[in-house]
Write a structure and sequence with these properties.
Helix content is 66%, strand content 4%. Strand 2 and strand 3 form a beta hairpin. The strands form 2 sheets. A two-stranded antiparallel sheet has the order 1-4. It is built from 22 helices and 4 strands. It has 482 residues and is mainly α.
Length: 482
């Protein structure tokens, strides 16, 4: 009740309150029930900060404006296919940048193109908003993917970010296509929609709907802005190359010798003076004892590679692309990213505290279910996502529990698309913004809250992508890849 209460109240206030109110829940668990505090997800938070900083500087440099212009040219070149191209475009932008908050500029353009082509804007807008969030589980620098990779490694399932997206990208693309098939003829055509036609009879409404034109094509893009995009893409490419080399068994990352405890060796060492010392403490001190500790080479982890490349790219954009740090900090990408950091910090720490203290009880309650139906964890991921509005937070909070329940890593990878469920209650910024951007009024939040424009495409995508992801991951597992 404490955990759920904190999540529900935090979701009601939104933004920073989601993480802060989770802190109240954490305090009650620790001081009220005297539970041992869990571990805050610092590694994941560091990566999010690095990636968000890089994306924020890219936005401040004007690089994102150029990316949006390229996307707009593609969409306006094929207006009759806007229902298909709009979600694919928003999906690709999120995959590249690691956050779904880069697509707000594109949404009014999608609506404008649909109106001028006579296509009901709800069709492309609804699925485009969904696709902008779907891309989070498919980006090698997103919080959700980074968290999945790092938490899996701690639980014996060593998998790189690139290996994760090799499953999620095809699964989510199939989910998008299924949702597009539903959306293609969704609702009444504008010329047959009595509510829309009634609006057009009002001159003010007619001018509002058809009078303006949203576009970024008239914006001048400087050479520094284009240079910033090249720097950002180069950083992404380097990360992917390092990951592919590691997957191929050619780890070219720097390595250093570290001392670790020999598996199966004694836990303590008797010193010459008769005292005993913990083998782990000796390993931390760098002391090698034959048969108990050993010196082994440890390569730089991909988590650190991402952090190094992202902050380096951000620095290069500041130096060579005239990106102003103050503009980056005041931009929507950086601010929304920092809100996500606070949310993940509070939620994950509270949930880890709860689950780590009651793992044995949950094993007793759930072991039979997860043994027979390990994929049923997808429903847990989805329901938690409905509450906390963050795919990264869902992974950080729930994935350790899933591993502790004995669910295989390949199964959890396959059902990863199910961590996106916050479209269910239409309170997420991208959905609300899309409703406001649609001048036709066809993209709506229904009278009964749940009958909104994002429900059907969201459910179709998540259901399809989760099933496809499960079978793709199973295929890779049987091939011995994972």
């Amino acid at each position: 009740m404490v955990v759920l209460g904190a999540l529900v109240i935090g979701a009601r206030y939104g933004s920073l309150a989601l993480g802060a109110i989770s802190g109240i829940g954490l305090a009650i668990l620790v001081f009220g029930f005297q539970l041992k505090p869990g571990t805050p997800p610092t590694d994941v938070i560091y990566i999010i900060i690095a990636a968000v900083t890089c994306a924020g500087v890219l936005q401040a440099s004007g690089g994102m404006d150029w990316m949006i212009q390229i996307a707009e040219r593609l969409l306006r070149k094929h207006p009759d296919r806007i229902t298909l191209l709009a979600p694919l475009t928003t999906f690709l932008l999120t995959v590249m940048v690691g956050t779904g908050h880069v697509v707000y500029t594109l949404m009014p353009i999608i609506c404008d193109i649909a109106l001028k082509k006579g296509i009901r804007p709800e069709r492309p807008c609804g699925i485009a908003s969904i696709a902008s969030q779907i891309g989070i589980t498919c980006s090698p620098i997103s919080a959700a993917v980074v968290a999945f990779s790092s938490i899996s490694a701690l639980n014996g399932f060593n998998i790189s970010n690139v290996q994760v997206i090799m499953v999620t990208i095809p699964a989510c693309l199939l989910g998008i296509l299924a949702a597009v098939a539903y959306s293609w003829h969704r609702g009444k055509d504008l010329d047959k929609d009595p509510a829309f036609q009634a609006k057009l009879k009002d001159p003010k409404q007619f001018a509002y709907i058809y009078g303006g034109s949203a576009s970024t094509l008239d914006k001048q893009i400087s050479k520094e802005s284009k240079r910033a995009v090249y720097i950002f893409l180069a950083a992404l490419l380097i990360i992917v190359i390092f990951s592919f080399c590691t997957m191929a068994g050619h780890n070219i990352l720097p390595a250093w010798n570290e001392v670790e405890v020999v598996k199966g060796g004694p836990a303590t060492v008797t010193l010459a003076n008769g005292a005993t010392e913990s083998a782990k403490q000796l390993a931390k001190a760098g002391v090698v004892v034959a048969g108990i500790t050993q010196s082994v080479p440890k390569h730089l982890s991909m988590n650190l590679v991402i952090q190094i490349m992202m902050i380096t790219a951000a620095a290069l954009m500041v130096i060579f692309c005239k990106a102003k740090p103050k503009a980056a900090v005041s931009g929507a990408v950086w601010q929304n990213g920092m809100v996500a950091v606070v949310a993940i910090y509070g939620i994950a720490w509270m949930c880890d505290t709860y689950f780590s203290n009651y793992t044995s009880d949950m094993n007793v309650m759930l072991s039979g279910i997860v043994e027979k139906y390990p994929w049923s964890m997808a429903f847990v991921f989805f329901l938690v996502s409905v509450l906390i509005n963050s795919q990264g937070a869902v992974v950080v909070a729930m994935l350790p529990l899933a591993y502790q329940l004995g669910i295989p890593g390949w199964v959890l990878l396959g059902i990863m698309p199910s961590v996106y469920g916050y479209f269910f209650i239409p309170n997420y910024p991208s959905d609300i913004a899309t409703v406001n951007f649609d001048r036709s009024g066809t993209t709506v939040i229904g009278k009964y809250l749940f009958n909104h424009s994002f429900m059907a495409p969201g459910l179709i995508h998540t259901f399809t992508a989760t099933i496809c992801g499960y079978f793709i991951s199973y295929l890779f597992h049987t091939m011995g890849l994972y």
